[in-house]
Amino acid sequence: EQEIHRDDVDLVDEIGADASPVDATSDDAPRRASSRGSRRPRRRPTIADSVTARVRGLDAKRAVIMALVIGVVAIALAPPLRNYYQGRSEYNQVVASNEQLRNQETYYQKKVNEQGDPAYKEAQARERLGMVRPGETGLVMMYPGDADKQAAEQAAQKHAANPWYSNLWESVATPPDGR
Predict the structure, then answer these.
(1) Which helix (DSSP H) or strand (DSSP E) does residue 151 occupy?
(2) Does 123 reside within a domain?
(3) Domain for residue 28, yes or no?
(4) What total number of domains does the chain contain?
(5) Crossing angle for the helix pair 60-115 and 118-129, nearest 10 degrees?
(6) Torsion angle of the four alpha carbons 141, 143, 146, 147, in this order, in degrees rounded to the nearest 10
(7) Considering just the CA atoms, what is the radius of gyration of the chain in Å?
(8) Whole domain around residue 34: which residue ranges?
């Protein structure tokens, strides 16, 4: 709440006395009595009236000084605020980086523990190197048509890499396989 002083009330009364006819017809404006000697009822001053009175009492010299003071304070506070927010940003980046490094550390620790397990080593030797235990028979499954599938895939990749006009010319110039 704002405290209203006696001086403010007097200024508001002076402002109210100088009000235009439009203001005088509004509901919250005081009604003028028909006789000149009677005193009009006072209305309660509002905060807006108090601020208006203070702004009207402010001269240009004080306004310029106030603007300069506010400008100097803003200039003085700008670098520390920028440094603060920049530091917060860097801190958040470091925290995110640390979390990512912790995740990587747990992943690699899990891999190290896994590779120390003899069952894992045996499974990798069987899968990657095709090794078998003594007495076991190793079988390599060869599916028919693997070479044909790879050749067809390579031809499709080559066909896709060619420009459209080259593919068009090949389709016209090369006779179909059935003839």
Answers:
(1) helix 146-161
(2) no
(3) yes
(4) 1
(5) 80
(6) 80
(7) 45
(8) 6-93
Does 103 fall in a domain? no
How many other C-beta atoms are found inside a 10 Å radius of the C-beta of residue 175?
7
How far apart are alpha carbons 43 and 12 in whole angstroms? 9
Residue 45's closest CA among 10, 21, 18, 20? 10
In a domain, 142, yes or no: no
DSSP-derived letter for residue 176 is: P
Residues of the chain where predicted confidence (pLDDT) is lower than 70: 1-41, 57, 178-179
pTM (2 d.p.): 0.36
CA atoms of 171 and 162, how far apart (whole Å) = 12
pLDDT, tens digit (0-9, with 9 covering 90-100), for 70-107: 999 999 999 999 999 999 999 999 999 999 999 999 99
